Amino acid sequence: MSAGGSNGTSETRSLLHQPRQVWAVAFACVVAFMGIGLVDPILPSIAADLDATPTEAELLFTSYLLITGLAMLVTSWISSRIGAKRTLLIGLALIVVFALLAALSGNVELVIGFRAGWGLGNALFISTALATIVGAASGGTSSAIILYEAALGLGIAIGPLLGGLLGSISWRGPFFGTAVLMAVGFVAILTLLRGEGSAPRVKIPFSAPFTALRQPALAALAGAAFLYNVGFFILLAYTPFPLGFDAIGIGLTFFGWGLGLAVTSVWVAPLLTRRLPRTTVIALALPLLALDLAFAGFAISTPAALVVAVVIGGLVLGVLNTVLTESVMEATDLPRAVASSSYSAVRFIGGAVAPPLATVLADTIAPSTPYFVAAVAVLAAALVVVLARGALARVNGGVETPQVEAQAIALGDA
């Protein structure tokens, strides 16, 4: 997204001259977003070292995504009562504790359980980080958002790479690394982030995210996202197994995936939505993703082609994540925090279903079957959007403000 123009030099200067508390939150954001792809390179190692089946290893994604999604239903209720700083610190503390416990675990069942706790911490942190940076940054909202998006993109891209490097030593390495880095972030935020001021908090009712899904437009987008996330997480979580690479090879592959996703979510998606209606962008991008997934199915025995499919998938996923979440923010008159909580819960449940479904399909039918099922799910998501175009007419409104774009990028990629 762009904040530039003739004042680009002054904005760059403002961006680099931030209070220490902003850099503390930004650092924690990098590490939090690393968690998205951190375990990808070590899935085969976990299966081998802990005597687990591929399906059991995939449950590391399922527990993380399921709890993240369910937690999204209550994060706005929590933060509206205890404040942003406490919410950030609780989220970071949970990630530190559960990442460390996962690293020390002796069986896959414990790792699965501790990943669930990690997901809870991540949901609390991510849901609050953007507002914290915007509130504390110097140089205005645009500089704060650029910094936040830079942290997001860096975390998404580095996560798989760091996971591969540490995972080449031991599958426990990425968990220990996350615990240490998040502990540093916790101390930095605890000591550097000042109080939140005296402005009264607007308390969000506990039931708000649950009743929000009664809105037809929001329900349609959530349903489409559920199906789309089946494709997303089959590509992300299942591909390390047919690739057949070591941890570093998988890490490098998904570094390319994360880099592509970050670039298109931050820059390409806003560019497209300034020129085309959001529903048109979604209706074009979903079939492209389905074609990519089908190509992965046909190319499963050729690692180089499968790498290409992963990277192309990342490019398309970045656009879809951001545009779908932007659409959610415009689909109703509900507060954006409430709408995004409802939507995120449903889409993460779709992501939670996908990884073990993929390995079961591969074992019972053929290794390529998960990709073809993923392609069908993504096409079904496109059909939902097309059939609901009447209810979704309002999402094709005006251009989003930079802050709303950043919220869409963050919630889409979390």
Describe this structure in words.
- Pfam families: MFS_1.
- One of its GO terms (cellular component) is plasma membrane.
- It comes from Amnibacterium flavum.
- With 414 residues, the protein is mostly helical.
- The chain has one domain: Growth Hormone, Chain: A (Up-down Bundle).
- The chain has 17 helices and no strands.
- Helix 7 runs parallel beside helix 17 and helix 13 runs antiparallel to helix 16.
- The two termini are 18 Å apart.
Enumerate the spans where pLDDT stays under 50 for 5 or more consecutive residues. Answer: 1-6
Question: What oligomeric assembly is this protein in?
Answer: single chain
Structural class: mainly alpha
Share of helical residues:
over 70%
Count of folded domains = 1
CATH hierarchy class name? Mainly Alpha
Q: Tell me the series of helices and strands, N- to C-terminal.
A: HHHHHHHHHHHHHHHHH
Q: Please provide the count of β strands.
A: 0
Largest sheet: none
Radius of gyration over all CA atoms, rounded: 20 Å
Membrane topology: Multi-pass membrane protein
Domain Major facilitator superfamily (MFS) profile: 21-392
Pfam families: MFS_1 (PF07690)
Protein name: MFS transporter
Summarize the model shown.
The protein has helices at residues 8-16, 20-34, 43-49, 54-82, 84-103, 108-136, 140-167, 173-192, 208-211, 216-238, 240-243, 247-273, 278-298, 303-331, 336-364, 369-387, 402-413.
